[in-house]
Amino acid sequence: YRYADFKDLILMIVGLTASVCHGIMLPTMSLFFGGLANVFISQQKYVSGYSFLKLFFNLRKFPPDFITEHYFYDIVDRYSLYFVYIGIVMFTSALTQACTWETACANQICKLRQIYFAQTLRQDLAWYDESDDGDLTSKLTDDMERMRDGLGSKVPLLTQAFTTLIAGMVIGFITSWRLSLVIVAGGPVILVASAVNAKISRESAIREQVRYGIAGGIASEILNSIRTVAAFSTQTVVIKRFEVALIEGKNATLKRYRYLSGALGISIGFLYFMYGIGVWYGSHLFLNDEITPGQIFTVFMSIITGAFGIGNSLPLLTEISNAFGAASNVFSIIDNVPSIDPYSNEGQALEKIDGKIEFNNVYFCYSSRPNVMVLSGLDFVIQPGQIVALVGASGSGKSTVINLLLRFYDPLCGKILIDNVNIKDMNVGSLRRNLGVVSQEPVLFDVTIEENIRFGNADATDFEIRTAAKLANADDFIRNMPLGYNTMVGERGVQLSGGQKQRIAIARALVSNPKILLLDEATSALDSRSEAIVQAALDNAMSGRTTIIVAHRLSTIKNANLICAMKKGRIVESGTHDELMQLKGVYYSLVLTQSKNGDDANMIRHELNGENPSYLELPLKYFLYSVRRKSSRRKSTGSKGTKTSDNKSFEEVEAEDLKFGYFDLLRLNTDKCLLVATIIACIISGFHIPSFAMLYGGILKIFLLTGDDFYSAVIFYSGLFCLLALVSTLALMTAVLTSSIGTENMIKELRLNLFKNFLSQEISLFDEDDYSPIRLINLLSRDPPLIKCVVGMRAGYIIVSTTTLVLSLVIIFYFGWRLALALVVFIPLLVYGNWKQGKMRFSSFIKESAATEQAAKLASECLQNIKTLQSLCLQEHMVNLFADKLSIAHKDEKKHGYIYGFTYAFSTSLVFFMYACTFRVGAIFISEEYITAPDMYRILFSVAFTATTIGAATVFFLDFNKGKLSIQNCLKLVHMKTKLDPFSNEGLRPEIKGKIQFKDVWFSYPARRNQKILRGLDLTIEPGQTLALVGGSGSGKSTIISLLERFYLPDEEVLNNLGIVTQEPTLFNTTIKENIEYGALSLEQKITEQDVIQAAKASNIHEFIVSIPQGYETKVGDRGSKLSGGQKQRVAIARALIRNPKILLLDEATSALDTESEKIVQEALDKAREGRTCIIIAHRLSTIQNADKIAVIHNGIVEEQGTHEELKAMGGLYYDLIKNQ
């Protein structure tokens, strides 16, 4: 509760005060029960006609406990009014405690979500290198839900229970300390059991969160890499990996429930056993005239009320322990203050800088790779306005220079100076706001183009935004869009092509008018046309600014003022292009390597008399703005809320649109015997309260007996209490344990089935907003655990309550149907109250879930793009945006609290009005001799304990609809059909030889049916032939690869004969060996260590692997973050080769690499192509000149095809592409 403000503290104090008042009222009524017990015993003895005449004629005097009928009615009326007064107090206190704590909890959880989100955005990059963003998102959803469940109204309920216990014991000891002492003799055992349970539950909850966090991280990694998983047909393997993590989390949870079942069983069992002893000892005190029957009832009633309160609170203790376990994980992140703190106001603020940059003897290594020194005494100086290019092999430290300048990391030693000021002495936010960054893969956020550009400068005017867009050559294409600058770019900018995204990123960097511009491979991933336009924009941007360029395409940095060649973390040579060429050193070698096979381009440039072609005068057909393959998600411009495939948003789904499917849920419990055992145990547990009521009411009859009958009745009832203790202990322990095991099994199965069904869907599904990986990851983390609100201990409690209700109705109708008719009217009121509460909460909870999900989606987007977010200093903006999305959910949460508070108060207070009615009407029936006093007490206690049980059940109804909605969402996804199932054994299994044919293929992505990507494509590739696909962005090249991989029509057997290497390979957070083995896991054949080494050698990565300390057992990090680009690419090639594919697909496999890495990887690819059918997508035309056939794709068809020489001679599209390079 550290984030409770003054208002929240007042609410909690008022709520605790109300809960204490509520707790005191419950045992207070035992005084009235005791007084009435004496009255009814006296009435049975003296008021009835026969007893009164016998007394008058035989005794001729009145005993001390004699009462008249008038006095009898007078006392009953007075006590009935007392119960009405208590009912009013109970309603007020219950309403107050529930509403205040639910409101305070909603306020604090809302703040906590914001603070947690803000603190995660605060952490430095070194911390993120060791963290899993999927686990961080899981904490924001699953852990916060656990905290809300455990820290809301359940805390005052627990306070109320302990107050009731203390007040009950005080009343009991004041009434008869001897009898009370005997009854509570088992109390220490109960308290020790509860304390041990609470301690172990909290420890287990922490371990459980860690285990499930690992599972969440696996799910996040796999779903974010769904295309890689589908390409290698490893769905079965990753499902097994996910299942193992789920089982470990489940086992950690079950340990907690074993102790809970023991604590609950011991508590109830000892309680009933001590009541058996209490009956025997109370009768002994009665015979010695040391206590009255009414006092015995007062002691029993006061202590039983407290004991039942504690018994009912044990499940609450479990949820509170869960909340503390979740809080421990959350606060560990909140309390972590990074060494590089972007929120700190300390440090020198940069008002105006000239742009001088100096690295002075800088040493650096990444914390994830402490044994690998990335920079080793780096020294260089950049003067204001200079354009400096960093070149060198992959892993030489070029991008690390950018990271250190942005102060994502601090050097181990040495200094980095800007304008002669150490950047460690500068304010982090001020430093980053003065640096403009454009990276190789620009990250755009899911907002409008204008907002994305404004992220570079929050104070930018519309004029400044448009000026920056013009400088970035982006203004024209933006204006040509229907919504212009208000166009939504989609998640990660998927609605735009690569060149369009890059130009918006440049505009974003320029809008703040930075004096220092950092360009990290800003054009390497673009096709020729896009590169030309973006390079022109960069030339504009660099004018008058200190610029550092990290480049692999050396032609783009030829005119730099200074070129620094790096090797092993040091600058080995520097100078202008001409100077370095004369040195014939590292730079000369890089240029020579990159110029290889580039004679044709040189010849064409010579034919142009050395004139540089104007990029803006290219043929119009190259300026058609088309949407890239990745933009197949549905366009979301101007929309509010995401839409499902049936054109209905989750926010708009009403209760009638969703079928609950309870039996579908129960089918997830694979152990049917366990389910049957749970139901039987719960039913038996439901017997214990009516049985206790029967025994408790029967005690009154003992005191109407005398002599041997009295002694026999005492022994009989004491024995029955002991028997009840044994049966109840075994039944409750079994019910809690089996229901918990069943629930955890169902949660595991539901998560597993969801995950499995996600992986069985065609790839096009993940292009839709409703089924984006971020959304599915959040659902997988948040919704399955909420089935506890519907099944498990809560469902068991409903079975127990239902059994109790049915048996109680049987009892009250059997022993006094007339009185039962008067009381039964209260039961529909209780049921109606709970039903009304459920209906109101369900409709509002749907809105709350939608709002919370939108906030979680934003958080996931930010955490996955943390580097971009921190470089732009967007933490405060994103936290405010997150808070705005949460505000809707916050209002609905508070509304839920008010609804719950009223319903809880109504059901709790109704019991006391029932008592008043029972005593008043019962008095009449006893006088008329329709029922006896013992029978009335049996009826009364049956109704009372049943009402208490139903009242306690309302706590679980609070979350029932939350679980109901979550189950509906989950079951909808579990039963979602796929067009072609990768797990199916149906379909042909031909022997793949390598011949590929496309015959009149037309294709459009499902999310964009009106936009044809392929328009009657005809293409034939013979076995062993190498085909290169070239053409502009959006022409359909990558679509051909996607169709061949059967991403949209998946076929397991075809995929097993394909090997794929993409531009940005996805590696998994396992070892190098396991990543290579991943390629052959679906082939169902044993992979030896020699196979792995052979594949590594074929991809030119073996020597590097054996040179690092842990060799093949080296962890590659999240998405391969611990390896350089060239190293990742070669591991990906080894992964493709180990499956010995007949067909090899290379999608821009070398475009993002530096010259040296490209050479090594290209050699590996040339070797890999031997004897295989190969399709290459390439922007660097020099890499595909030796292809057997080159096909130029334009507007979804093959415009030209032939060899390099044949196409060049045509002077058509291919010739234009060569000329532009």
From TrEMBL:
Q: What is this protein called?
A: ABC-type xenobiotic transporter
Q: Which family does it belong to?
A: Belongs to the ABC transporter superfamily. ABCB family. Multidrug resistance exporter (TC 3.A.1.201) subfamily.
Compartments annotated for it: namely: Membrane
Please give the PROSITE patterns that the UniProt record associates with this protein.
ABC_TM1F, ABC_TRANSPORTER_1, ABC_TRANSPORTER_2
Q: Which domain of life is it from?
A: Eukaryota
Q: Extract the SUPFAM superfamilies matched here.
A: ABC transporter transmembrane region, P-loop containing nucleoside triphosphate hydrolases
| EC class name | translocase
| Predominant localisation class | membrane
